[in-house]
Amino acid sequence: MTARLLRLRFLGLLVAGIWIVLDQISKTWAQSNLMGHPRFLFGHVGFELIYNSGFAFGIASGSSAIITIFGLIVSAGLIFALWRTSRRTIALGIGLVLGGALGNVVDRLFRHNGGAVIDFIHSGFWQTFNLADMGVVVGLIVIMVGSRQRQVSSSSNR
């Protein structure tokens, strides 16, 4: 294994770890400061504490155990993918998705919310979400862009 590949793996795991910590700090803040007291910055945009026992958008509410197992399986797959990548952009994206997935798994396993995750970022035009959710979405976009860049550069080399 080359030093470059080790650095890529470390980058992905470091990003995941940082994202988990930021997510948990933000959820602790939300739980301490928003219980029964939403804070709207302008209009309906702001912070409002809700507990989500389902997937994104409340799909499969009440299926926390199944969702936790699914999150752990996905996380294992992401670690496997991280070990196989040789691209910095992809490693970064995987780290964000992994951090987001594990951030929500941590909520389900270690917070006493009946298996629910803490959502608190309220946009007014989208479902309420958290930093873990942002990590998953932004990470997937980074992976898609990174994959597309490789395809474009490969196509132009033909």
UniProtKB/TrEMBL annotation:
Recorded coiled-coil stretches: none
Membrane topology designation: Multi-pass membrane protein
Keyword Transmembrane helix: yes
EC number: 3.4.23.36
Entry's Gene Ontology molecular function annotations: aspartic-type endopeptidase activity
Transmembrane segments: 54-82, 89-106, 126-146
Location of the protein in the cell: Cell membrane
Main localization (coarse): membrane
GO CC terms of this entry: plasma membrane
Keyword line: Aspartyl protease, Cell membrane, Hydrolase, Lipoprotein, Membrane, Protease, Transmembrane, Transmembrane helix
Catalytic reactions of this protein: Release of signal peptides from bacterial membrane prolipoproteins. Hydrolyzes -Xaa-Yaa-Zaa-|-(S,diacylglyceryl)Cys-, in which Xaa is hydrophobic (preferably Leu), and Yaa (Ala or Ser) and Zaa (Gly or Ala) have small, neutral side chains
Pfam family, one: Peptidase_A8
Known pathway: Protein modification; lipoprotein biosynthesis (signal peptide cleavage)
GO biological process, one term: proteolysis
Active-site residue list: D119, D133
Membership in a protein family: Belongs to the peptidase A8 family.
Free-text function comment from the UniProt entry: This protein specifically catalyzes the removal of signal peptides from prolipoproteins.
Protein name (Swiss-Prot/TrEMBL): Lipoprotein signal peptidase
Organism listed in the record: Acidithrix ferrooxidans
